[in-house]
Design brief:
Length: 256
């Protein structure tokens, strides 16, 4: 893709300060989009992402976006509105990437109601209301990209609540695609497998665990954040204009 593929577009990436979100924000910035880098707690990391995008010649700003509480989506969009005019006087947004999420949960025996509520609040409720309150800002022909997981289709009982949130997110994508199609807005899920991020650093630091994770994928290696970011960049571009309501498998062919 060319550096100007998303020129004139504005993107919001939640959870953009680390891991997959960081790679997505950097890639969309390189493709020409102005990127709002959402973060929950680590403002320093978010500003590092912003600095990296700017160093590549792009435009970006950090956006505080703590999720999981009632009113979080309204607060996010209020913060967005307060900053976007500095970069795009017309305001609005073209690409919403719902990436932020809690990556793990306890097994059925250990799962508490509080943990269940928290993982669903961040992984499902937040994207739902980010879209609900963002629709008045999302331009026709826009993109909504929800970061799901291969665990929406693969059994892993030890973190089943997490997997259930991603299944719900895929259903959300499907219904949004139907509802927003008349506006030319596409909605898709991207479902990564095991990705080499700081979240998985301890697990993948064990050579045996890394070897197992690589063996699960048909392509024979552990995924990198950039593998997911490049897929997201394609979906965000006009090249993917005729694809909506889909779950894009980004697991490297895990457990085929």
């Amino acid at each position: 893709m060319g550096a100007d593929r998303l020129q004139g577009k504005t993107a919001l990436v939640t959870g953009g300060s680390r891991g997959i979100g960081r790679a997505i924000a950097r890639r969309l910035g390189r493709d020409g989009a102005t990127v709002a880098v959402g973060y929950a707690r680590d403002a320093v990391a978010a500003e590092e992402v912003v600095a990296g995008i700017r160093a590549d010649g792009g435009r970006a700003f950090a956006l505080p976006a703590a999720l999981g509480r009632h009113g979080d989506a309204v607060a996010l969009w209020e913060a967005f509105d307060a900053r976007i005019g500095e970069y795009a006087p017309a305001g609005g947004v073209d690409i919403i990437v719902n990436n932020a999420g809690i990556g793990r949960s306890s097994d059925l025996a250990g799962l508490t109601e509080e943990e269940f509520d928290e993982v669903f609040a961040v992984n499902v409720r937040a994207p739902f209301f980010i879209v609900k309150h963002g629709l008045e800002r999302l331009r026709d022909g826009g993109r909504i990209i929800n970061i799901s997981s291969g665990l929406a289709r693969l059994a892993m009982p030890e973190i089943m609540a997490y997997g259930a949130t991603k299944g719900a997110l895929d259903t959300f994508s499907l219904n949004l695609a139907q509802q927003l199609g008349p506006r030319g807005i596409t909605v898709n899920s991207v479902a990564p497998g095991i990705i080499d991020t700081d979240l998985n650093a301890e697990f993948l630091g064990d050579p045996e665990a890394r070897a197992w994770a690589a063996s699960v994928a048909a392509l024979g290696r552990v995924g990198a954040p950039e593998d997911i970011a490049d897929i997201v960049a394609f979906i965000a571009s006009d090249d993917a204009r005729w694809m909506t309501g889909r779950v894009v498998d980004a697991t490297g062919g895990s457990r085929l």
